[in-house]
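Question (not urgent): is this output format expected?
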Amino acid sequence: MTSAASTLLRIEQLVKRFGGLVATDRADLTVFDGEIHALIGPNGAGKTTLIHQISGALAPSSGKIHFAGRDVTALPIHARVHLGLVRTYQITSIFRRLPVLDNLALALQSRSGGSLRFWRPAREERERYEHARAVAQRVGLQTLLHRVAGALSHGEQRQLEVGIGLALRPRMLLLDEPMAGMGPEETDRMVELLQDLRGEVTMLLVEHDMDAVFRLADRVSTLVSGRVIASGTPDDIRAHPEVRRAYLGDEMAEVRRP
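Got this back:
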């Protein structure tokens, strides 16, 4: 991203304490509009805790979170979603007993503020399901519309979760380890999906698969002991001595380039 890119998310001196444990330690982070920004770091670095605070699931002990020019530090999750800040989870979160199409339609309904009443105008219902079909096609599930979500493969369930996120019409998707538990083929499909969404939605991606990170990310930030120690292009991060010492190591720093 160029220096002229506009800032969509800015975190300033964010701190999260759990008693005597400091999980987020004066973290600063900037994500530009339209980019895929990866957040990496060792286990226990505080990545998920940071995502919890950005999404509104956890309140920070101190510091500020700005999204789309607004201070959202004290806003609840649903208010952030309506601003376009949407999160997917490390453990897949879907309605397992409902078909793919209904999962997506419910997400669309929640975004529009509609109720769960049985009697709705037929046109409203038809439009919602047409939109749900379009989202399913966007994430590669158009042939599985009537498959119960719990019967999908692990990779397909993660695709559905991304679809649910897209149905909420995000400006930014917070993706917490979307490749977790996937085999090589499923990972490749997810990488292709996220690449295809590039420029359509801004993404902050937490991921341990460094091959996927370096294939996808425009910029990368490294979190160690709750603090962002470096941000830059993938090449910058590969070459950064502190990042290599703390996380990547010499072998991982040579992971293939896009």
